[in-house]
Design brief:
There is one protein chain. By secondary structure, the protein is mostly helical. It folds into 3 domains: 86 residues, no CATH class; 96 residues; 33 residues, no CATH class. The protein has 12 helices and no strands. It is elongated. The chain starts with 10 loop residues before the first helix and ends with a helix.
Length: 274
């Protein structure tokens, strides 16, 4: 595996990767402790000479690994260092800052961690991702955050909608033993059930509204009088007086069996209506 390259940014990430790489190569102790090989005894054997030479080559090889994993601009900062430990400490001081700066960063992160709360409109995953982002910054600064502390933080910062789920978990599980993964999965399951119930309620409301409008539309058939509705119209089925009178006159005229001329019939009808 090729070692990680440091370009002057995200030193904390590079330091963690580089430390793992040096350990895999058996070289980290020469960076951390500036370890030196033990001196040969008098009249050493060939095997002792071979082991000594292999150990003696590890310290310069550790320094060479650090040189190979930084860009030229960063290399100029450590080019005068003669040991791997000296080069490592120089990079840490240059890019991570002093202990005072580190303590200020830790204080700010601790304040941000304590103030985090999950909003009603946010999802569980979004909140946990934001929380873990702060925790990872803690860890990059060498500070540890236990899983138990994370579980407590999540339980205390959830909105009221999760109170029933928390009570259920307390009844069914030992909360001092629950893992972060188990808690997140349980909260996401509760969140999904709540979302499905909300969708069902919305669909039922829409169907009820649509049904009400359809029924109202069917019952609002207009009668023959202006502005009247057939359902509530008191005159429903009753013809206007003038229309009924015209009908009676027409019947009487019809019974004359065409004994009068059309002109006479029109005159009679006009006189009755007048």
């Amino acid at each position: 595996m090729s070692p990680p390259v440091f370009n002057g940014e995200q030193y904390h990430m590079w330091a963690i990767k580089m430390k793992a790489f040096l350990r895999g190569q058996g070289l980290w102790q020469y960076v951390e402790e500036n370890r030196q090989p033990t001196q040969l005894r008098q009249n050493p054997t060939l095997n002792q000479i071979r082991i000594f030479e292999e150990e003696a080559a590890k310290a310069p090889r550790a320094l060479s690994c650090i040189h190979a994993t930084v860009i030229d601009l960063v290399f100029t900062r450590i080019m005068a260092c003669e040991t791997a430990k000296e080069a490592w400490d120089k990079l840490r001081e240059e890019f991570m800052g002093s202990d005072i700066t580190k303590n200020m960063q830790v204080l700010n992160l601790r304040r941000e961690f304590e103030m985090l709360r999950m909003q009603e409109s946010k999802k569980v995953k979004e909140y946990v991702d934001r929380l873990m982002s702060v925790v990872n910054k803690f860890r990059l600064l060498g500070m540890e955050m236990t899983e138990r502390r994370l579980v407590e933080k999540i339980l205390l910062s959830l909105p009221k909608g999760f109170e029933s789920k928390i009570s259920s978990l307390e009844d069914s599980k030992d909360m001092s033993q629950i893992t972060l993964t188990e808690l997140v999965h349980a909260l996401q399951a509760q969140e999904q059930r709540t979302l499905l119930r909300q969708e069902d309620t919305s669909e039922d409301a829409m169907m009820a509204t649509h049904k009400g409008k359809s029924t109202q539309g069917n019952n609002r058939r207009a009668c023959k009088q202006y502005g009247h509705i057939e359902k509530v119209c008191k005159n429903k089925g009753i013809q206007p007086p003038q229309q009924a009178q015209v009908g009676k006159i027409k019947c009487k005229v019809k019974r004359l069996n065409n004994s009068l001329s059309p002109l006479a019939m029109q005159l009679i009808l006009a006189m009755k209506l007048g």
